[in-house]
Amino acid sequence: MITLRVNGNDRQVDADPDTPLLYVLRDDLGLNAAKFGCGLGQCGACTVIVDGKAVLSCVTPLLLLEGRHVTTLEGLGTVANPAPIQRAFIEEQAAQCGYCIPGIMMRAQALLMRRARPDDAEIRAALAPHLCRCGTHMRILSAIHRAARLMDTADLSPTSERVR
Amino acid sequence: MRRWRGSASLLAALFVVGGFGVVAFVWWPAIAAIAPPARRSFDDAAIRRGRDLAAIGNCSSCHSLRGGKAFAGGLPVPTPFGAIFSTNITPDVDSGIGGWSEAAFRRAMRSGVDRDGRHLYPTFPYDHFTDVTDDDDGALYAYLMTRDPVYAPARQNLVSFPFDQRWLIAGWKLLFLRQGHDRSDPTRSAEWNRGAYLVEGLAHCGACHTPRNALGAERKDATFAGGDVDNWQAYALNSQSPAQVGWGKAALSAYLREGFHPDHGTARGPMAEVVRNLATVPAADVQAIAAYMADIFGPRSPDAPPQPRRQDVTVAIADAGRLPGDSGTAIYTAACATCHESGRPLPYGGINLARSTALSAPQPTNLANIVLAGVRPVEGEHSPIMPGFADSMDDRQVAALLSYLRTRFGKGPPWANVDQSIRDARRTQTADLHPPTTLDNAPVDPPQRGKK
pTM for the whole thing? Predict the structure, then answer.
């Protein structure tokens, strides 16, 4: 049994220590926002936040995560009460098929936590590890700028203190 | 302290030598500015050859900012004396070399003096470029003078007194700049001779791969013995090479064009830019470079260990999942072996680590860089890939992994400075992740594979 801290809660997981975090999130904990894309850490669909940094969960074995805080998209907000990053993506209609979007949102969230008002160049540089085949890139850029503006209003990010 | 005294006495020596140099070497006349020559005045074939020569010389690597305009300069080159900024070599009249005649260009290449007669810092490797032929200088000039002019004034170098005194460079040249080499060897093949000309001249391989003395000159007693550049190690290319499998001409030729070789690893850091440029030049020139460098490496030592085979390094992954804790072994098995022992072919599989030069290098610098930053795919290229682990592993875990890899796959004693290397790699990587703005998706000089 391994204890994993996910979205603020300690979860007991019965998995081998070399199991990729992504498999545990999806198969054992039922957190399906992070997606399996390439399994090689090359597409970004599996991105989650660990201790405030965007991490590719498909190439991160459990044994690296002892005592660390994992945040998934489910930990940011809910359908009823979306986090600023989620609200911004909805308002900009930034998803087409949507498969890459949870990973991109987590990377954008990590970026916005260390840089409140990134410019286009910084967003593009940060999102370089993510692939999107539908091509909603321009809307994704707009959504991240919108999220940055939304986060300026403190009461719109009620759950953000859970992200560490 | 001792090192500083050594530098101080060398500095004093430099002043003395500089004193003698004043009369004979310091003063160079300005060469009159010209109106930029028209595109028509250059021969198409010369421009095309100049393009290949500029790629062999890796000019764009220093004379362009990532994401900036090609050849517009502005890159800070760190030296022990301060940062020297590369300059604009586009044909802009006001801020580039638009007003330079071919004679002025050739003088800069051969003697390290700009059109105004000012001494150039040897960060511009004229100690190598001095050997470029008139003909090749002419082709390079034709190529550069037909690029798009970009207005980009030179930035002020960040060097303090006395190194901001350019006349001192005349003393440096007196000590270290040797002109008029004749490296041709009639007993060798034409290919070897071509390789010697390129390697020692325009390609300036020694600028990174030869260690430098206290005054920043390449040590002639340690040619190709390995150097440091931008927090990467440029490995020794002579008999001291740390490669686990000896280099041969065929391997060198493939590596320099493809950017990876199954027996050696992948070209990363500044070398990635070199191979990206070499991928675009005529194969014969890369083969010539390979022929000459194979000779520099020397014959494979007869008592070198036998070449490892993949089955020698494959562990039974089956039980590994139960390894306790986050020891180096456990991390390797869980995070690395899944690719590096997958048997997937290169470049998308992991290299056989028992053949990776990084694990046998004298310092863990390059390995730390790669584990943290990974290997980004090159846009539009069939290139190696690896995710970086900077944000998923903490320093202790990386240190455990590096030490394990050294013991398991490397040769040589355990590394003494793993922790410092990891901190340096993290610092470099942070600078890399926060690039200056005006970043653009377009590569600086898109590879032109298949053009020949």
Answer: 0.86
Of residues A52 and B9, more confidently modeled: A52
Asked whether the beta carbons of A48 and A72 are under 8 A apart, the reply is: yes
Candidates B148, B93, B154; CA nearest to B120 is B154
Task: Tell me, yes or no, whether B452 lies in a domain.
Answer: no
Average of per-residue pLDDT across B103-122: 97
Residue B91 lies in a domain: yes
Q: Which helix (H) or strand (E) holds A56?
A: strand A53-56
Residues of A in contact with B440 (CB under 8 A): 121
Answer yes or no: do B158 and B221 share one domain: no
Q: What is the pLDDT of residues B380-436, one digit of tens each?
A: 777 889 999 999 999 999 999 999 999 999 988 999 999 999 999 999 876 544 433
State how far the Cα of A148 lies from the Cα of B246, in Å rounded to an integer. Answer: 53
Total domains in chain B come to 3
B-side interface with A, Cβ within 8 Å? 320-326, 330-331, 333-335, 338-339, 348, 374, 376-377, 385-387, 389, 391-393, 397, 433-435, 437-441
**B222 and B267, same domain (yes or no):** yes
Q: Cβ separation of B330 and A18 shorter than 8 Å?
A: yes
SS3 A12: strand
Q: Which residues of A touch B386 (CB under 8 A)?
A: 41
Choose among B96, B86, B105, B87: nearest CA to B42.
B105
Nearest chain B Cα distance for residue A80, angstroms: 31
Whether residue A63 and residue B325 make contact (CB cut-off 8 A), yes or no, is yes
Question: What pLDDT does B140 receive?
Answer: 98
- Best of B392, B395, B433 to substitute, by most chain A Cβ atoms within 10 angstroms, is B392
B9 falls within a domain: no
Structure tokens at A99: 């498969």
Instruction: Print the domain residue range for B151.
Output: 27-176
Nearest to A119 among B330, B397, B437 (CB): B437
CA-based nearest distance A63→chain B, Å: 6
Comparing B300 with B347, which gets the higher pLDDT?
B347
Measured between CA atoms, the residue of chain B closest to residue A65 is B392
Residue B442 placed within a domain: no
Q: What does each C-alpha distance from B131 to A109, B24, B108, B145, B365 come to in angstroms? A: 53, 22, 12, 21, 32
Q: Are B9 and B16 in contact (CB under 8 A)?
A: no
Please give the average per-residue pLDDT across B158-182, as a whole number.
92
| φ/ψ of residue A61, rounded to 5 | -70, 150
Q: Give the model confidence (pLDDT) of B47-56 as tens digits.
A: 999 999 999 9
Handedness of CA B226, B287, B343, A128 (dihedral sign): positive
Q: Look at residues B150, B176, B202 and tell me which one is the last residue of a structural domain.
A: B176
pLDDT of residue B316: 42
3-state helix, strand, coil in chain A (%, to 5): 40, 15, 45
Q: What is the pLDDT of residues B234-293, one digit of tens each?
A: 999 999 999 989 999 999 999 999 999 989 989 988 999 999 999 999 999 999 999 999
